[in-house]
Amino acid sequence: MSTLRAPLAAMSLSILLTACGGGGDDAAPADKYVGTWDIPCEVDGSISVLGEVTLNKASGNSVSGPLTWRIFKNTSCSGAPYSTITLQAAVTIHGTAEIDGKTVDQVTEALGDDVSKDVYYVTGNQWFESPEGSPTGPGGFPTNLNLAIATTKR
Questions:
Q1: Would you say 146 and 131 are in contact if contact means Cβ atoms under 8 Å apart?
Q2: CA separation for the pair 58, 90 (Å, rounded)
Q3: Whole-angstrom Cα distance, residue 69 to residue 61?
Q4: Contacting residues for 99 by C-beta, under 8 A, at least 6 apart
Q5: CA 72 – CA 50 distance, rounded (Å)
C-alpha cells in the first residue's frame, strides 16, 4: 500500500506491510504476511505518523485487517498522539518479479477506498516496499525497492 498520493494515504501505503519468511514449500504466498507489524515513524512536514497493522489470511494469496495510525504534532512520533485513525487494509498477491536480485511479491493494496500497486520483499521479520514515486513496469507494478525502511513483525 504505497503509491497513493494523498499525504496520509501515501504514508500508509508506502510503509504498510512488512513480513517474516514463510514456512516450507507448501506455504501459501500470503502466509508470511500474517501477524502484527510495526510500521516505522514517517515524517510529513511538521507531523509524524506511527502505525501498526494486524493481518489475517483471507485466502492463499491475500491478507486483510485493521491498520491503525497514530498521528503526532512533531517530527519524532513522540508524546501523546493528537489523532488516531483506523482503516481496513487488504493486500492481494498477484505474482512475483525480480528486483536487484531479490524476488518480490507484486501486490495490489487497498486502504479504505484507495487501491494501488506495489512490490513487497520479505526477509526474516522485515518487510520492504517500493519507494514512493518509483517507476513502473509491465502491469503497472513498481520496479524499485526501498531497503532503507522496514516494517517489523512483532
A1: yes
A2: 9
A3: 25
A4: 119, 121, 143, 144, 145
A5: 8
Contact by Cβ (8 Å): 12, 112: no
DSSP-derived pairing of the beta strands 62-72 and 146-153: unpaired
The Cα–Cα gap between 140 and 149 comes to 22
Q: 76: exposed, middle or buried (C-beta count within 10 Å: 0-12, 13-18, 19+)?
A: exposed
pLDDT in tens, 1-59: 443 333 444 444 444 433 334 444 578 999 999 999 999 999 999 999 999 999 999 99
Q: Do the beta carbons of residue 115 and residue 108 sit within 8 Å?
A: yes
Residue ranges of alpha helices (H) inside the chain are 7-15
* Span 73-106, pLDDT tens digits: 999 999 999 999 999 999 999 999 999 999 999 9
Task: Give the per-residue pLDDT at 25.
Answer: 53
Is the distance from CB of 49 to CB of 8 less than 8 angstroms?
Answer: yes
Cα gap 151→30, rounded to integer Å = 16
Distance (Å) of CA 79 to CA 36, 53, 72? 22, 20, 8
How far apart are the C-alpha atoms of 120 and 19, rounded to whole Å? 9
